[in-house]
Design a protein that fits this description.
Elements (H helix, E strand, L loop, with lengths): L4 H15 L13 H4 L22 H43 L3 E16 L5 E6 L6 E2 L4 E5 L2 H57 L5 H31 L12 H18 L2 E3 L4 E4 L9 E2 L6 E13 L14 E6 L6 E9 L28 E5 L13 E7 L8 H6 L9
Antiparallel strand pairs: 1-8, 1-12, 2-4, 2-7, 3-6, 4-5, 6-8, 8-11, 9-10, 9-12, 10-11
Helix pairs in contact: 4-5, 4-6
């Protein structure tokens, strides 16, 4: 017999005992001696020999423990299945309730901080003489930003003021000429009356042969000359009246030439004033280095930018499907990516009457056969409350807008119709 024979005999004995079940004796003394206590000489020798087994567990107890563990595992699986089957309807009910009562808050992250921005410029051309601000400097309304060389505009103003004096003198001279011309016409009428009587006397004398024909002709000539002089003076007087705008007795200040001269003077003064550019509102100037002293700045050319600091708002672009219950005046909570945990409050100020794509230079053409429906974005403006102590909001910051519509999602319309419920209203 080989070295493994004693071990084989012991294993066969254990197998026979296990097959006998619990009916046999469970005392280890009933096993063969070689199975209970193998001889040391029967164990395989060498480094590969297995460790000697410890005290053997009773065969009957081992079977009972295995059966008990199997029964406990089966009961645990049944409890888990029952618990799972019970949780499924609970989860469905909770989920349906959350869906029906949810949807009160419309949220979108397609929103950015906006503020009034002004490209600072002036409507006169000139050379930059002074720059009174630096990059990212805070300014108040009325602060000087930069100045142009005002010498040409001062000269233009002086010339315009001198022109007012010239026009005033011309109109005063015309009024004097008008009155003088009236006197000459009255004198011409007196001369005509005199020469008329003289002509009649000479004619009477000529008819009685007491006056010569030459004297009669001279009298006729003098009468005709007086009449022509009066006609000439009358025409000159009409010209003066026209130059006085048909109202020779009106004040000089009401004459169009005078008003035109005053307007020219005022325009020269305005242009002079616009050589000094001031801030239109409180804000921060930016891109100032683009303007340099000595640079020629054409009229209406932007010099740099002024960003308002006192009034900001949020321009959001939610999807059209998200605006079902959004209305102006609804409360809004705004969180900014730059300041985690800080929340601003406000309200929906207005909603655009058209989608953002409607204002593009090349609107989408949906008449082709390859048309694909795309959900549109509707611009929405949100008014923000900016109390003291809040971090500064800068133009272009990304924000998340949450609008409390006060309206739950409700039962879906197909389900409502299926169960005879009233579908949700879109007021």
């Amino acid at each position: 017999m080989s070295d493994a024979a004693p071990s084989t005999v012991a294993q066969e004995a254990v197998t026979r005992a296990a097959g006998a079940g619990g009916g046999g004796s469970n005392h280890p003394a009933e096993l063969p001696a070689r199975a209970r206590d193998p001889e040391p000489d029967a164990l395989p020798a060498g480094p590969e020999a297995p460790l000697a087994p410890g005290p053997a567990e009773p065969i009957g107890d081992r079977g009972v423990s295995a059966a008990t563990a199997a029964a406990a595992a089966e009961r645990s699986r049944k409890r888990k299945r029952l618990l799972l089957f019970a949780l499924v309807p609970v989860v469905l009910v909770v989920g349906a309730y959350a869906y029906v009562t949810g949807g009160q808050v419309m949220s979108t992250d397609n929103a950015y901080v906006q503020s009034a921005m002004l490209a600072v410029s002036t409507d006169v051309s000139g050379i930059v003489r002074n720059i009174a601000v630096h990059e990212n400097q805070k300014v108040a309304a009325g602060d000087v930003l930069f100045q142009l060389d005002d010498q040409p505009f001062r000269l233009a103003l002086a010339g315009a003021e001198a022109q007012i004096g010239i026009v005033t003198n011309d109109l005063t001279a015309l009024k004097a000429s008008y009155h003088d011309m009236q006197e000459q016409i009255r004198q011409a009428e007196v001369d005509i009356a005199f020469y008329q009587r003289e002509y009649q006397r000479q004619q009477t004398l000529a008819n009685s042969n007491f006056a010569s024909q030459a004297a009669l002709d001279a009298a006729r000539h003098n009468l005709d000359s007086a009449r022509q002089k009066k006609a000439s003076l009358t025409q000159q007087l009409a010209g003066i009246v026209a130059n006085l705008n048909g109202a020779p007795d009106a004040p000089v200040e009401r004459h169009p030439r005078y008003r035109a001269a005053v307007a020219t003077r005022d325009e020269a003064a305005r242009q002079l004033a616009h050589t000094t550019v001031k801030a239109s509102f409180d804000g921060v100037v930016t891109n100032v280095p683009s303007l340099q002293i000595g640079q020629y700045l054409p009229a209406s050319t932007p010099a740099f930018s002024l960003v308002a600091s006192g009034h900001v708002w949020v321009q959001a672009s939610p999807k059209e499907t998200e605006l079902t219950y959004v209305r102006p005046g609804q409360p809004v909570s705004v969180s900014v990516d730059t300041y985690p945990g800080v929340v601003w409050h406000g309200a929906v100020e207005s909603i655009s009457p058209a989608s953002a794509a409607s204002f593009s230079l090349l609107p989408a053409q949906n008449t082709s056969g390859n048309w694909v429906k795309v959900v549109q974005r509707i611009p929405m403006r949100v008014r923000l409350d900016t109390p003291a102590g809040k971090p500064p909001l800068r133009v272009g910051m990304s924000v998340v807008v949450d609008v409390d519509t006060g309206h739950a999602r409700g039962v879906p319309e197909p389900v409502a119709r299926l169960f005879g419920l009233e579908p949700p209203r879109h007021e």
